[in-house]
Specification:
Blueprint (H helix, E strand, L loop, with lengths): L3 E7 L8 E6 L7 E11 L1 H7 L13 E2 L3 E9 L11 E4 L2 E2 L4 H4 L12 E3 L3 E2 L6 E5 L3 E4 L10 H17 L10 E5 L3 H12 L4 E6 L6 H8 L3 E4 L5 H7 L5 E4 L4 H7 L8 E4 L13 H10 L3 E4 L5 H17 L8 E6 L16 E5 L3
Parallel strand pairs: 8-9, 12-13, 12-15, 13-14, 15-16, 16-17, 18-19
Antiparallel strand pairs: 1-2, 1-4, 3-5, 3-10, 3-19, 5-6, 6-11, 7-8
Helix pairs in contact: 3-4, 3-9
The structure holds beta-D-glucopyranose (BGC).
């Protein structure tokens, strides 16, 4: 019998079907890398998959191995691989291209046809397994000094891409320098966005979330010179009154109504990046004249951003290094719970109180 390895999978569409499974041990092809997984992060997308709302198994399979925030170590390389060697620490990108113009140009994160696959999410098995293989082109090198926080690379790429979009858009105004930024939501994406903006020298970074301080998100933000505001102490419109020139807004609450509440507080010439994929069917009544006039009169940009390009992965690794030099040990405090893969994997389904980032541990 061929060798099998531990993995964590769901039956897509079946709520609460997360379970440990055994899959065949993968073998790397000539252009592929075999990675020993060390740990895998869990995010809101994984929880939506676990609750049966999204997620698609690979063609012909009924199980989907979940997990797309991976950190591991190269176990073997195919004979044509030059990018990494055995023993190197690595991550991997998530989305795999279809044949659309964006994908053909090497930017599947901008896919037009939406026939892409995403490892652990959409039509391709993920990384929550003892080992995985991947073409070297999708492998991301992570330096050994970042071993304890390398698992944060992928979530950080989401905001790396967002902030890169902001800077690309704002080349329309060569004098533009962001001084004030608001992050809506203080989960892992909001926090990493706030750290990123602070690390890039944005003076005033304010994260707005529901839970009143003190809490671990507020502690992390304060340590990085950012501010935490609970909507219980200041509503979103009040945040706008307090900060009249908000240059950048990153929206990561997962609630579409909050995204629309945020638009009116964006300052003139500002950019708001919407980052929440909201799967529901909610509707709301909104002041369209005021919102429209605000956007037009203020030359404002509202832009959506999903997934991340390869350069966002390289930039995320550089940013993690910068975080460590600015605030040693701080990024690591985002990891608030560790679940061994041999434990009760049904615990992945629910977010513990005061949890920021849960990771599943596969061993050294
Ligand atoms: C992942 C992205 C992915 C998106 C939509 C996010 O959680 O970080 O890589 O594109 O979900 O599936």
């Amino acid at each position: 019998m061929s060798k099998t390895i531990h993995a964590v999978a769901v039956y897509p569409g079946e709520a609460g079907s997360v379970h440990r499974t055994e899959i065949p041990a993968p073998e790397p092809g000539d252009d592929e890398v075999l990675v020993d997984v060390i740990r895998v992060g869990v995010c809101g997308t994984d929880r939506e998959i676990i609750s049966g709302v999204i997620g698609k198994a690979p063609e012909g399979a009924d199980e989907l191995v979940i997990g797309h925030e991976v950190f591991g170590r190269v176990a073997a390389v195919g004979k044509n691989v030059t990018k990494v060697k055995v023993g190197d620490f690595t991550g991997a990108t998530v989305r795999r291209p279809d044949g659309c113009p964006a994908c053909a140009a090497g930017q599947p994160d901008m896919c037009v046809w939406h026939q892409y696959t995403e490892r652990g999410i959409q039509g391709a098995n993920g990384f929550m397994a003892k080992q995985f293989v991947e073409h070297e082109q999708y492998i991301v090198s992570i330096p050994a000094e970042l071993a304890s926080i390398g698992v944060l690379t992928e979530p950080l790429t989401v905001v790396e891409k967002a902030v890169r979009q902001v800077r690309l858009i704002q080349r329309r105004m060569p004098w533009w320098q962001p001084k004030t930024a608001v992050v809506l939501g203080a989960g892992p994406i909001g926090l990493l966005g706030a750290l990123l903006l602070r690390s890039q020298g944005v003076e005033e970074v304010v994260a707005v979330a529901r839970t009143p301080a003190p809490n671990s998100s507020a502690t992390i933000l304060e340590a990085a010179g950012a501010r935490y505001v609970s909507t219980e102490e200041m509503s979103i419109p009040e945040v706008g009154q307090h900060y009249p020139q908000i240059d950048v807004i990153l929206e990561s609450t997962g609630v579409s109504a909050v995204a629309f509440d945020g638009i009116p507080i964006l300052g003139n010439d500002g950019v708001m990046v919407l980052l929440s994929l909201t799967g529901g069917t909610r509707t709301a009544e909104i002041p369209t004249d005021a919102i429209n006039t605000g956007i037009v009169g203020g030359n404002k940009t509202i832009v959506g951003s999903v997934n991340a390009g390869f350069e966002d992965f390289t930039n995320a690794v550089a940013s993690l290094r910068k975080f460590e030099s600015l605030w040693p040990g701080l990024a690591g405090t985002l990891i608030t719970s560790r679940l061994p893969v041999t434990g009760d994997v049904s615990q992945i389904a629910s977010k513990a109180r005061d949890e920021i980032k849960m990771v599943v541990e596969f061993g050294p």
